[in-house]
Amino acid sequence: MALSTTEKLDLVAHSEVVGTFISKSRIFLLFLAPFCILLAVSSTAPFRETVLVAILGASGLLTAVVLWLNWRYKVFALALFWFLVAFLEVLSHDHPSSHTVLGWVFTHALAPVLAYYGYRVWMLARGYSVTNSIGFRDEKNQFDKWKRLLNGHNDPSVAEFPAGDFSTGYWTYRILNTGACWVVAQFKRGSNKLKSCHVYDLSCVTFTRSSSGKWQITITPKSGRTKSFDEVEMPSSFPIPNQML
Questions:
Q1: Is 129 exposed, middle or buried (0-12, 13-18, 19+ CB in 10 A)?
Q2: Are 10 and 182 in contact (CB under 8 A)?
């Protein structure tokens, strides 16, 4: 599929979020794998269940090692791990016995949830592998420059504002005007931990001045839901193109 420059940059921005996901998954697996191996070694459960736990521990440890590699296909290993967990859950007999199809479905209800999660990770792996290929080297280098601007706090082309509430969580948003597109990044409040990041065409972001003197920022992506931020205080040095007002 032919992608525009903005769409390529948006894929690269999303891959940065996948990097955070990889770090969290490594930590999770490094705790899970030794626990399962220790459980299998000292198990008094039936042989079948012990073997399944041992397989889970060994595969988790192997996946954690793969995630440490500088390999653009490594997220596929994580997706395969979750598919394996779903399969092992189906094989397990550590459930109340059921003599009906409906009862079996309810007994193994966790398996499709794990399989769906594996599918979601698989889709992340596809984007991660593409954006870390040689064909995206220019876009990666460009986004790295933008990321340094977003992580700084003194560049006039970057505006920062808080958003969210108790139900949605409290976040900090930073918006960067590159001159050719907009970069909108979502961070955990009080840190530089990236939650999401997108690159939009200039026409997808509009600014509306409210009666209080503050701004309403509306983001209308070509695909997806429209997002709006009200009563945003923008620095006077922030460049807002006249056609966006």
A1: middle
A2: no
Q: Give mean pLDDT, residues 46-51.
A: 86
**What number is the average pLDDT over the span 11-15?**
90
Instruction: Please check whether residue 224 lies inside any domain of the structure.
Output: yes
Q: Are residues 213 and 109 in the same domain?
A: no
Instruction: Give every CB contact of residue 229 below 8 A, 6+ residues apart in sequence.
Output: 161, 163, 173, 216, 217, 218
Average pLDDT over residues 130-144: 91
Could you identify the residue written with the tokens 């990236």?
Answer: 194
Are 65 and 22 within 8 A, CB to CB?
A: no
Q: Give the CA count within 13 Å in the CB-facing half-sphere of 238.
A: 20
The answer for residues whose C-beta is within 8 angstroms of residue 116's C-beta and 6 or more apart is: none
d(CA 43, CA 116): 30
Give the pTM. Answer: 0.80
User: Contact 45/14 with Cβ under 8 angstroms?
Assistant: no
Is 222 within the bounds of a domain?
yes
The model's pLDDT over 59-85, given as tens digits with 9 standing for 90+, comes to: 999 999 999 999 999 999 999 999 999
Half-sphere exposure for 171 (CA within 13 Å, toward CB) = 17
Residue 73 and residue 94 in contact, taking contact as beta carbons nearer than 8 Å: no
Burial of 140 per CB tally in 10 Å (0-12, 13-18, 19+) = middle
The encoded tokens of residue 104 equal 């079996």
Same domain, 127 and 169: no
Question: Which pLDDT value is given to residue 3?
Answer: 83
pLDDT at res. 81: 97
Amino acid at 205: V
The overall average pLDDT reported for the chain is 85
